[in-house]
Specification:
six-stranded antiparallel sheet; Elongation Factor Tu (Ef-tu), domain 3; 2 helices; two-stranded antiparallel ribbon; alpha+beta
């Protein structure tokens, strides 16, 4: 693409050079036409030789030929510039078709697609975190699900030493129970249901994205 764009500058300069020659030839042609007309009048008045008139006519034809040739070169140069710009426009449209844009600002956490992969509609490309406060996802057992409400405060503590890491607030509580999914234990004998709960972490929170922590929601 950069190579094609660099051709535009060179072609514009080439067009300017041909335009300068066309302008000079146009001036020379006007003078040659005026000289030839004057010589024709002088010959009619027997004030000029026939050879001198032929010389002026020959000069006028040569300048006229050069002028027409330069006009053709100018048209060709402009056509080439149009072709270069059309090629760049086409290549940009191809590149734009290969650009995947996120609907909002954020950070790519994990990219599963690799160079050369064929991407299809609906294919998972990786993991993306939208810009804004961090949101934690947890599941509340059905025994306590009805007690959790939007607006309740919560603390997040380390699973290693029970140290408080940060705090947050409940911003979403699902309307239905479902099977465990986040922390399911295939060896568990109980078939308990859970509610999905989302909590927005405080702006001062210090937690690593995708880390597993214990969540304590204060229901009273």
């Amino acid at each position: 693409m950069l190579q094609e764009e660099s051709k535009i500058t060179a072609q514009v300069a080439a067009i300017a050079s041909v335009e300068a020659m066309v302008k000079a030839s146009d001036s020379d042609l006007k003078k040659a036409n005026a000289d030839m007309e004057l010589n024709e009048k002088l010959l009619a008045a027997k004030a000029l030789s026939e050879q001198a008139l032929k010389d002026s006519q020959s000069k006028q034809r040569k300048i006229s030929y050069d002028y027409q040739r330069q006009l053709a070169e100018l048209a060709s140069a402009k056509s080439k510039l149009w072709e270069i710009r059309s090629t760049i426009k086409y290549k940009k449209s191809i590149i734009n078709e290969k650009i995947i844009k996120a609907p909002f600002s954020g950070e790519i956490l994990k990219l599963e697609a690799r160079r050369g992969d064929y991407i299809t509609v609906g294919q998972k490309l990786g993991q993306f975190a939208p810009e804004g406060p961090l949101v934690a996802v947890t599941e509340v057992d059905e025994l306590f699900a009805e007690k959790v409400k939007v607006g309740m405060r919560a603390d997040f503590v380390s699973q290693l030493d029970a140290r408080k890491i940060c705090a947050g607030i409940v911003v979403f509580v699902a309307d239905f129970l479902k099977k465990k999914s986040l922390f399911s234990d295939e060896n568990a004998l109980e078939d308990r249901r859970v509610k999905e709960v989302r909590l927005r972490l405080d702006t001062a929170s210090n937690i690593v994205i995708n880390s597993k922590v214990d969540c304590i929601i204060y229901v009273k």
